[in-house]
Amino acid sequence: MKSGRGLSGDTILNSGLTRKDDRLVQVMPLLERVDDWAEFLRPTPSEEEVKRLRGHERTGRPLGGVDFLEYLEKLIGRTLKPKKPGRKPKRR
User: Fold this and answer.
1) Domain edges within the chain
2) What is the pLDDT of residues 13-41, one digit of tens each?
3) Distance between CA 46 and CA 6 in Å, rounded?
């Protein structure tokens, strides 16, 4: 993918893998987010990753840590974390 100025869309990928700045990308902010770009961008997810993705795909619940889920719950105003399974007990 090329921009109007002739800069390659691969610039960020190349900078992350070579760990060197170029005309478009400063590497340090990228490295602070992802230490191992080759691993981060590997094309095939592990079996465990696929299992987790499929599980969340099936339930429709977002995949993420507790902090992320709490942030989303506050953002949209509804519960996203799983509740206790089964029906609520009848009141007597």
Assistant:
1) 47-76
2) 555 456 777 777 777 787 788 777 778 87
3) 36
Q: How far apart are CA 56 and CA 26, in angstroms?
A: 35
- Report the chain's terminal Cα–Cα distance, integer Å: 66
CB atoms within 10 A of CB 37: 20
How far apart are alpha carbons 53 and 28 in whole angstroms?
Answer: 30
**Cβ within 8 Å of residue 81, ≥6 positions away:** 61, 66, 69, 73
Return d(Cα 89, Cα 91) in angstroms, integer: 6
